[in-house]
Amino acid sequence: MRYVPLQAGAASAASGMWYFAYGSNLNSKAVVEWSRHFGHKPPPMKPGRPAVLDNYRLSFPIFSEYWGGGIGDIVYDPGKYVMGAVFDLSDTDLAILDLKVQRKLDTGGKEIGVYRRIEVDVAPLGKGKPVKAITYQGVSVERYHIPPTQHYMDLVIQGAYSFGLSMMWISYLQSFSTQQGRKPRPPGTGDADPRL
């Protein structure tokens, strides 16, 4: 993937990788908390720029044990859009996010985890031309809505506010049905016997 600055005259990064975040990764606090739970150095999720991904829609078809409910995914849907933010991240930073979203490859390089990386064109809001970016999409997911926990949605909405995404988008996020739940916890800390 070729690095393209978001603005004319912007310095290029050593890594040259744009990453588009739309779910809990939009909230740097959520990324830091997950990293702390699992003993990783959190990727620098700032500064980011608000951006839009056209021809996709947001959905919540994946259940996460960590979050205790549904988590965000994107589905190709012409005419729809997803708002988020683009970040300039290194390979090392993306490797940490791969762990967070449970991206895995088999020995042949086929995506077999919960999410896979895909390359998309995103348009920064305001000034700037569209850029190629990496984002995550569910690998093999039924397209049913699994209500996210209110805590998860609050983090997504806080992330949207922090990047100045439109009130229309924030209202859309608030329109999803949610469930009462718990704050996130790493696997093995639940009520069930871990050997089950």
Automatic annotation (TrEMBL):
**Residues of the signal peptide:** none
Question: What SUPFAM superfamilies does the record point to?
Answer: Gamma-glutamyl cyclotransferase-like
Q: Which GO-annotated molecular functions does the record name?
A: gamma-glutamylcyclotransferase activity
Instruction: Kindly indicate whether the keyword Transcription belongs to this entry.
Output: no
Identify the InterPro entries for this entry: G-Glutamylcylcotransferase (IPR017939), GGCT-like (IPR013024), GGCT-like_sf (IPR036568)
Sites binding substrate sit at: Y19, F20, A21, Y22, G23, S24, Y152
Q: Tell me if DNA damage is a UniProt keyword of this record.
A: no
- Which keywords appear in this protein's UniProt record, sorted alphabetically? Lyase
Pfam families (alphabetical):
AIG2_2
Q: Which Gene3D superfamilies match?
A: Gamma-glutamyl cyclotransferase-like
Q: What is this protein called?
A: Gamma-glutamylcyclotransferase
Organism of origin is: Humisphaera borealis
